[in-house]
Amino acid sequence: MQRRARALPLNCPPPAARRNDGRSPVNRHATAIVIGATGILITGPSGAGKSELAIALLGAARRHALYAALVADDQVLVTFASGRVIASAPGAIAGLIEVRCSGLAQVPDLDSAVMDFALAPVPADKAERLPRDGWLALDDQDHRLPQLFLRWPAPAPFYKLCALCPGLEFGLPARPSRFVDP
After folding, report:
1. Alpha carbon distance 64, 93 (integer Å)
2. What does the DSSP 8-state code read for residue 119?
3. What pTM, to 2 d.p., does this model score?
4. Which pairs count as long-range contacts for 139-145, CB under 8 Å and 24+ apart, including other chains?
5. DSSP characters for 8-54?
6. Residue 19 to residue 28: CA distance in whole angstroms
7. What is the DSSP string of 120-131?
8. Across the strands, what pairs with 134?
């Protein structure tokens, strides 16, 4: 698979913006994907289902004729530029996603993308019916993302995410509708 032969979505930062305000990238245990023009950082502990949720969301988006690509799986290098959160993959794992109990799979990917919100898979027995709004802190410098919680595994995660983030189903830039920047 040739990594450079694809078009970049609207939310891919220009090369000049790929900096970290003078600091080293933050390596997060997470998975980063892009659906349409929206970057999603999937967070959670090991075994929470981040990769499987990403595969489900990417597949559903493609079935709806939306652009969908992996940015990074398992390790996400997070940088900050112009008030935005930018995710990229360490070179050794670029384009690879874990299919639990089966190994690694190569999938369409991007070198980097702006992340618009964080998504945390939550097991059914721990899921709150109406969770409070949350913000995911990415460092000690007040860089953060609005965070949604989604029961997982569960059917139709793409449709649930579209209900929470208007415009996502059309490939538009989307954020959770109940969040207002503080």
Report:
1. 27
2. E
3. 0.86
4. 139/26, 139/78, 139/80, 141/21, 141/80, 143/80, 143/85, 145/41, 145/85, 145/115, 145/116, 145/117, 145/118
5. PPTTSPPGGG---TTSPPEEESEEEEEETTEEEEEE-STTSSHHHHH
6. 17
7. EEE-TTT--SSP
8. 147
**Minimal CA–CA distance to 145: which of 94, 95, 78?**
78
Q: For 29, list phi and psi in degrees, rounded to 5.
A: -80, 100
133-142 pLDDT, tens digit each: 789 999 888 8
Give the pLDDT band (50/70/90) at residue 4. Answer: very low
Statement: residue 98 has pLDDT above 90: yes
Q: How many residues appear in the chain?
A: 182
Q: For Cα atoms 12, 74, 177, give the angle at the middle one, nearest 5 degrees.
A: 55
Domains recognised in the chain with CATH numbers: 24-170 (3.40.50.300)
